[in-house]
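From: lab user (bench 3)
To: helpdesk
Subject: output format question, protein + S-adenosyl-L-homocysteine

Hello, I'm new to running complex predictions and I'm not sure whether the block I got back is the full result or only part of it. Here's what I submitted:
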Amino acid sequence: MDSWNKPLNGMQSQIQLSGKRATCTTGPIAYATYMQTCLSHPTEGYYMNPTHAILGSKGDFITSPEISQVFGEIVAVWLLSQWMNFGRSRKIRLVELGPGRGTLMADILRVFSHFPAARSAVRDIHLVETSLALRKIQDEKLGPMTKANGWNCMWHDGLDDLSPDEAAFTMVLAHEFFDALPFHLLKKTEKGWHEILIASGPDPTTPQRLKASTSRDIASDNVDVSFETSPRFRQVLSETPNVVSHLLAASSSRFQKLPIGSHLEVSPAAYKVARKIGEILHSKKGGLGDVLGCALVVDYGGDHSFGSSFRAFKDHKIVDVFYRPGECDLTTNVDFAYLKDAIADLAITHGPLTQETFLTRMGLQLRVDALKKSASSEARKADIEAAAKRLIDPLGMGRQYQFLGITGTRNIQPTPEQCWPFIEDTSDHVAERDISKDSLKLITQVLAYPALTFSIISMSNNKKLIFVVGATGAQGLAVIDALLAPYPDGSPSPYSVRALTRDLGHRRAQLLASKGVECVQGSTDDLESVASAMEGAYGTWINTDGFTIGEQKEIYAGMRIFEIAKQVGSVRHYVWSSLDYALKLGNYNPKYRCEHYDGKARVAEWMKAQPSHDNEDDMAWSVVTSGPYMDMLYNLMFGPLNRRSDGTYVFAAPLGSGRVPMIALSDLGFFARYTFDHRSMTSGKELAIASQMVTLEDIASTFRQVTGNKAVAVDRSIDLWFDLFGGVDNPVANEKPVGGGSTTWKENFRGWWALWRDGMVQRDMDWIRSINPEGHTLESWMKEVNYDGQLQRSVLKNVEDSKTIVPIRELLVEL
Ligand code: SAH
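Helpdesk reply: Thanks, we reran it on our side. This is the complete output you should expect:
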């Protein structure tokens, strides 16, 4: 039996899972062991635990079949066209690997059941699924239909239970299956390929410990990533090439060509499964009637290898791959070329094609039009269209997912008609020219069938669309999560989100797309892009990036974006994310000037001179004024700058006895949602918010109390504090040249610290608590995030993108 379907295989004892704690018990382990244990441990594994929602809108990620049933219907049409081309006289054997909630199979079977010839040809359905919890869900979903039609449905631990069957036409499906298979991580050095392993505990040789893969670009290919490890685990490079690294690197000539320094994720499990699919479809005879079946593999990935695509998802967010082992979905991009290598001598592979091309060529629009005709309302029509668009969105799922087709046997070269839609030609006329008459007839017949009712779970068009500027920043991500969250009673959010982003390829933009956010390219430098992206929006959350553009541009952009919102016509609630007006609060004394606060605040002051209309035909505005994030305890501003040799954490800042209106990002999200939910109450108002007014001593004492560690608060003079960092004379607006109109980092933060130290900013905490009684305190925040005093790079985007000051380590250790 394959090792990939035997989750235990002695590995369980090498790594112990228990919620947040996991350790390697017998020395370093392979990534494959880690992944397999985390996903398939019999009791603690991610897929095995019945309490995990896993898939769908409530789970950790959402897949195409769950977005729109059109996806499964079109896959069904492709399978039927293959059967009609090659197997019509034979019974149908359907096989699905990793069926999840069974949605794809249910949609396929529903299509099959509408065609008498296909309905009577289906013989049995084989589901390869290791998780008993998911088997139960699949049984509930498929049971009624299979029983009503007299089809046999059975489950298997692995594909090895199945052998070639000449009496049947076998259809194999693997949707988001290969990405969950364990892989080995290799690195090429001068001496050859070495395996990178995982060891537990901190690295004794490096003082610096940062967070793991969240800062990697998930789409990057074979790049030499600098390794960052979590406190619990670290990566170790095996000293010499081992048998595994040697054999895996030799398993494809493509790998040999990679340059020294490359990383390579390679999955022998994926190779084995692909080969097994080939064996099931391979016919020793060579006639047209001897084709034993077809297969479709759909996954995130590409036609090449990857070096750093391993990532983890929890609650629709990308998290550290070592975060809560067993509670997160782990995934890698699929190397389709490797799957093709495995099958090459057994069957014919086609593609991969992008999901957009596959679905479009297979007649997605025909099906969508037919469904719209029979839709009961305009809103429903819009929903149907929106869900289909999401599947083929070239900036999202449409290009991220790839379809690999497998047909026939090695001996038969299918015609272009028989290969449809897997053909090279991409000219516009190809649809009419190459599509076979039979397939076209079938497609039209199936796709136009109005009785195939339509259901979608991601309805967007009857929702209020909120346009977000600053979506990929720490604040934006938190605000979007709050906007999309269901109400406490479980009823769905009334909002959908469109995000403006400079770089659609940025990891954070891809993360947003994975949550169903529509990402549109543009920037506040290009106000036309803002105007067109705002079309149709009901609301806005505008948080301009003063750290990039500086106060001068920020003021102008802020005023113009407001005017544009008025002009666009659809916007009913314009919300500006602001900060305190430092200079004004300090009675215009220049020592309080703070560029990244004042820029936003001046816009807010100007907005107060504009009308706010709380009616259905015009626009209301609100200002939400927040403050430093509690998450800045993970960086140099509020985090401990040193840990002394006796273990004492040193929180050093020029804060005196001043108070900072710190806010947890989740509370900021709460108030953003509150503002949109209460338009009348917040119209024309500024909401000055915080989670708690915090002193430096509060930080040290709360840390002591929550973690049991020793900690001290050190009040440091402002100049001595700046001495600890390099780069403080650079412009605070990082797109500006030195001397180019922006204040320096030092000037900016001198005003910022003075604002808190001199008590210039107050908050009405009674009002805040009355609105948000569940809001965080510093203590509850530290407990919730398990704050451990480790600095991280991945909270603030500018920090993650390395656009900020650098600490001088020799001085920090003196603190
Ligand atoms: N195809 C579904 C589910 C994808 S999740 C969809 O797209 O919605 C991955 C699925 O593969 C789950 O059902 C999981 O339990 C299953 N799976 C993961 N590893 C497996 C293995 N080694 N053997 C069998 N099933 C596995």
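A quick orientation on your result: The two ends are 59 Å apart (CA to CA). Let us know if anything else is unclear.
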